[in-house]
Amino acid sequence: MEHDQAVDILRETELFRRRTRSARRSIWFPLVVLGALAMGSAALCSEDPIGGTASSVYWVVAGALAYPTVYLFYRRRSLKQGLSDGVAAFVAVGLGLVALTLNLVVGGHRTGNSGYARIIAPSGYLSSWPVAGAVALGAAIEALLAWRMGRRGLAILVASVGVVALLFAARLILPEALFLGANLLPNTLPIVVAAVALLVLAWIERSPGLATIAISLGVLGILSGLFIIDNRFHATLGCGVDLLAIGGFAMACGLGAAIVEWRRP
Amino acid sequence: MSHPAIGLDDVVHQRVRLGILAILMEATRAEFRYLRDSLDLTDGNLSRHLQVLEEAGYVKITKGFEGRRPRTWVSATKLGRDAFNAEMYALKVLVGAFEDRAKAATRRAVTEPGIDI
Fold first, then answer.
1. Interface subset of A 71-100, CB within 8 angstroms of B
2. Chain A contacts of B71, Cβ < 8 Å?
3. Digit-coded pLDDT (tens) for A62-87
4. Min Cα separation B99/chain A (Å)
5. Which residues contact A117 (CB under 8 A, 6 or more apart)?
6. Which residues in A169-197 are b (16+ Cβ under 10 Å) and which e?
């Protein structure tokens, strides 16, 4: 075999990989869905750090509907296109987070605390250990399957979600003093949680663009929701306006991605 | 000294089969018609290459129906992914070896004029 022939084969192989990646990648739909849900939640905005049960219930119901919808979108797309990817892992992580939240909302309703606030409030861990344990177990199985399929990166990512869930269950995350606790308003925390699921999707899709958008959404969610006096971002945007702005950002990114994908040959 | 091409796998070291595995490295599974259209092959030609890969244990072929339409999905096995990665590595080593030889020959030509490269 000659040098030029080997170089040609390497180049051709990389071209096939790039074309397949590009044909398979689609990130617009989950972003538009998240944007619409965030904007829809603006009406339920609450300034009370331990309130916002309506908002939590809204996000649990929305999440339980949105993740299967996203899955159906990808499934329909894969049948039409003839290419499929491991998007089920994204849906599994998303639904795991919804299940974790559901338990916290129910627990929060009993004790009068907000569900989403209790996700990061140390007092909320103990009551959620069965669900957190189930999420950890699900993540461990998913990570094992991903590892056996040769997708080491995804396996590590899913396993780390499992470890976090396990830590939630075991009340081992951080000393209470270091923790954000209930200072993060429940309104934007669901966006931070959704951003974690989007990061898993970015990994599956090998999309640096989606990873950047997911991290931006997470940072925006924390900045606008962190209820401490030094946080000027929280004070600048009023309750509900921040959700409209973040939702609008996700929607704009989704529509931008849709235009790019439709123009693709 | 052994030839650098000695590490290449005969099953994978074929342009079409390498192309099939390259596509399958980027997707959990690909449908027969996607592979056929992407690689610009006929049905029969693709089937033969898939058979070779399947016999080597590099791909798994699943046939079924979606509604009333028959579908054939192809996915790479762990063995197939490993073989593809090994092939890519061997090709890169080969290219590197060629380039090292070319550089050495150029150096000799500069330091020892009169030597034919």
1. 79, 81-86
2. 79
3. 888 999 999 999 988 888 889 887 78
4. 8
5. A49, A50, A52, A108, A124, A182, A184, A185, A186, A189
6. beeeeeeeeeebbbbbbbbbbbbbbbbbb
Segments in chain B forming alpha helices (H)? 15-25, 32-39, 43-55, 78-111
Q: At CB < 8 Å, which residues of chain B contact A? A: 5, 8, 15, 18-19, 22-23, 25-34, 38-39, 66, 71, 73, 78, 81-82, 88, 91-92, 94-95, 98-99, 102
Most B CBs within 10 Å, among A26, A78, A83, to test the B interface: A83
Using CA of residue A205, residue A194, residue A59, residue A134, what is the dihedral sign? positive
At position A153, the amino acid (one-letter code) is G
Whether this model's ipTM surpasses 0.95 comes out as no
For CA atoms B6, B11, B17, B19, the dihedral sign is negative
Amino acid at the residue A167: L
| pTM for the whole structure | 0.71
Smallest Cα–Cα separation from A204: which of A66, A33, A26?
A: A26
Chain B nearest C-alpha distance from A37 (Å): 29
| C-beta atoms of B22 and A13 within 8 A | yes
